[in-house]
Task: structure prediction
Amino acid sequence: MSDFVSDFWHWYIAILSIVGIVGCGVLLKMQSTKRLEKGEKAQLHGHVWDEDLTEYNNPLPRWWAWSFYITIIFSLIYLAFYPGLGNFAGRLGWTSANEYQQEIAQANAEYGPLFDKYMKVDIITLAKDPQANAMGQRLFLNYCAQCHGSDAGGAKGFPNLRDRDWLYGGDPASIETTILDGRNGVMPTLVAAIGGETGVMELTHYVRSLSGLKHDATQAAAGKTKFAVCTGCHGADAKGMTAMGAPNLTDAVWLYGSSEETIAETIRHGRNNMMPAQKERLGEAKVHLLAAYVYSLGGGTPPVEKPVVAVAPAAGK
Ligand code: HEC
Ligand code: HEC
Result:
């Protein structure tokens, strides 16, 4: 409520509200007709609708009138305790932001120690813990399923996380890095470098030949020589490169599809795909649980040994 730039709107709203509420009470009082004395007959209003519809000037039932008065009293009490009158914060000082913060603080106090405990457990061990996986699954359904599917089976353009085919690697550290920092898979359009539309079709047939799909042998052979421009990312053996996020083109797993049309479309226009980073949004503890959950789905691969980096001794020692 402190967003008003001047006091004018505060008073404008506060006065309008009070005038409105008091006005309701005054109107109610003015319109209340007296109870009829015994034997007295109610008068007609004198209004006529639809040719012959008339109305008696009967008083509002008492309980009805009182429920209006109670509403008016309630609104005044409400506005004294809760925010509603312009800038006036209400005597209780309640705000929805505070309430939200309190709920978050309560949830953190409740689940924080559990997350901390799991944070210290390595992903492979955690992936075998049913309670951790149940939490991971709930997080997955909330934050990941809209893209990867509720069973993590993926969809066109959204990778399947259950299989052993990984764009960026299925070892624990790679999965966790993918979720924390996000990924951006870029396949450039290379039409010019491969001789235009002819090259696109030749390479399409070559790519299809790699996984044993129906293809034209002559075109595939021509495509094979042009594949040189692709090896920088997909590798000389076309088995993909996790450092580039370039998929293996020799297996039966497709991110976009194996039809001639789809493969040609990828080669012709390139692709630009995005896995959103979750570090800021979910925090490391939740990502850790999610990584373990994804790992547990069956596609996880053993940890990669980090190469030992030889540190040169500092000069003079
Ligand atoms: C807005 C859609 C979207 C959401 C939400 C999303 N992802 Fe992704 N994710 C993608 C896309 C697209 C890719 C592939 C990126 C690429 O091709 O470079 C991907 C890739 C991945 C990969 C790498 C797969 C591989 O083969 O290497 C993992 C693991 C992953 N996501 C896990 C998650 C988890 C866990 C969540 C929930 C926190 C999540 N994703 C939420 C779209 C999404
Ligand atoms: C700069 C690296 C790079 C180069 C060069 C490159 N690609 Fe790709 N390619 C990728 C990436 C990354 C993806 C995955 C895109 C995504 O995540 O959406 C991809 C995806 C594909 C796909 C889709 C596979 C699927 O599973 O649906 C095909 C087909 C493909 N590339 C063929 C080629 C061919 C043929 C060439 C050479 C003309 C080539 N690529 C050159 C990086 C590259």
